Amino acid sequence: MEVFLSTLKAIIDNLGATVALPIIIFLFAVALGAPPGRAFRAGITIGIAFIGINLVIGLMWNTLSEVAQAMVRNTGIQRDVVDVGWPSAAAIAFGSPVGLWVIPLTLLVNIVMLALRWTKTLDIDIWNYWHFAFIGSLVVVVTGNLALGLLAAAIAAALALFLADWTAPAVQRFYNLPGISIPHLTTAPGVPMAIVVNGVIDRIPGLRDVQADPEAIRRRLGIAGEPVILGLIIGLILGILGFYNAGDVQTVVVKVLKTAMNLAAVMLLLPRMVQILMEGLIPISEAARDFMQRRAAGREIYIGLDSAILIGHPAAISTALVLVPVAILLSAILPGNRVILFADLAVIPFVVAMFAPLMRGNIFRMIIAGALTLAVGFYIASSMADLFTQAALLAKFEMPPGAVRITSIADGFLWPPFVFVIAVRLAGVVGLLVLAALLAVALFLYMRNPRAWEAAAGAASKD
Question: Residue 82 phi/psi, 5° resolution?
Answer without folding.
Answer: -105, 135
